[in-house]
Amino acid sequence: MFLLVAASYVPLARYFHYATLGGSGRGAMLYLIVPAAVAAALLYEWAVRGVLYGALAKRLPVGTAAPAVALLGAILPAFLRLELLPRSTAPFTVLAVHAVLVEAGLGLALCLLALGVGSAVPGGVAYGLLWALRFAVGLTFVGGAVPLMELAAAWASPVVVAVVLARPLAPYREELL
């Protein structure tokens, strides 16, 4: 569900003619991109949602570890996104804030997923597939509708994960609220 919601802005943007799918030159190398992206995401999820969350959960007040990890964990993906993916012509500050906000929303969903499932592996695989999609699609857009759609999809993903995993998250209710 995380991956479907997080990537939902791509078909919506295409359907409403806000974007075109360019099928970047990297799309032909998808068989190399997917395993590399999933492996990198699994390692990153282990470090951020595993080690960092474990350390911060002991030190921070109840309910603040997941949002703190989501925000801290958004810094590296936002940087990689600005360096590796094609950028629009918007000012760099706007692009950087957008990247951090999108990655923080996805990070919160991944924190909830890791808590609910008890492992960072499913979230790592989904996050790696999302990065592979970002590399392969070559999304070209005009105007501000697509970044807003991406931001909405990123922040809808924690809501969907929380609804789907309501029962598995029940033991952690005090930590989340």
Describe the 3D structure:
With 177 residues, the chain is mainly α. It has ten helices and two strands. Strands 1-2 form a two-stranded antiparallel sheet. Helix 2 (9-15) packs across helix 8 (145-164), helix 3 packs antiparallel against helix 4 and helix 4 (65-73) packs across helix 6. The longest helix has 30 residues, at 30-59. It is globular. The two termini are 22 Å apart.
Mean pLDDT: 86
DSSP, total strands: 2
H and E order: HHEHHHHHEHHH
The tally of structural domains comes to 1
- Runs with pLDDT <50, length 5+? none
Beta-sheet strand percentage? Answer: under 5%
- Counting DSSP H or I runs of 4 or more residues, the number of helices is 10
Attribute tags:
10 helices, 177 residues, two-stranded antiparallel ribbon, mainly alpha
Q: What's the quick description here?
A:
The chain has 177 residues and is mainly α.
Ordered list of secondary-structure elements with their pairings:
Layout: H1 2-6, H2 9-15, E1 19-21, H3 30-59, H4 65-73, H5 75-84, H6 92-117, H7 121-137, E2 139-141, H8 145-164, H9 166-169, H10 173-176
Antiparallel strand pairs: 1-2
